[in-house]
Amino acid sequence: MNVVINGQDESIDVTTLAQLCKGLTDHPNFIATAVNGEFVTVGERATRQLHEGDKIEILSPRQGG
User: Fold this and answer.
1) Helix, strand, or coil (residue 64)
2) Where are the domains of the chain?
3) Please, which residues bridge with residue 59 across strands?
4) Looking at the domain 2-59, which fold is it?
5) Do the Cβ atoms of 3 and 12 come closer than 8 Å?
6) pTM of the prediction?
7) Which of 56, 19, 63 is nearest to 35 (CA)?
8) Burial (0-12, 13-18, 19+ Cβ within 10 Å), 31
């Protein structure tokens, strides 16, 4: 299915947000996620189904000063 991840068109073959996060990072519990502008908690990701055209935002903390 085709979705938008952080503003980029992407084709994915997973169906839940948890599966997507696991495939994108080694530390999926240390990122923030939103689908179509709605924040999705770590606990909700396994049941959050993804659909064609969803807009997904994935943010990770950065160290700096």
Assistant:
1) coil
2) 2-59
3) 32
4) Ubiquitin-like (UB roll) (3.10.20)
5) yes
6) 0.89
7) 56
8) middle
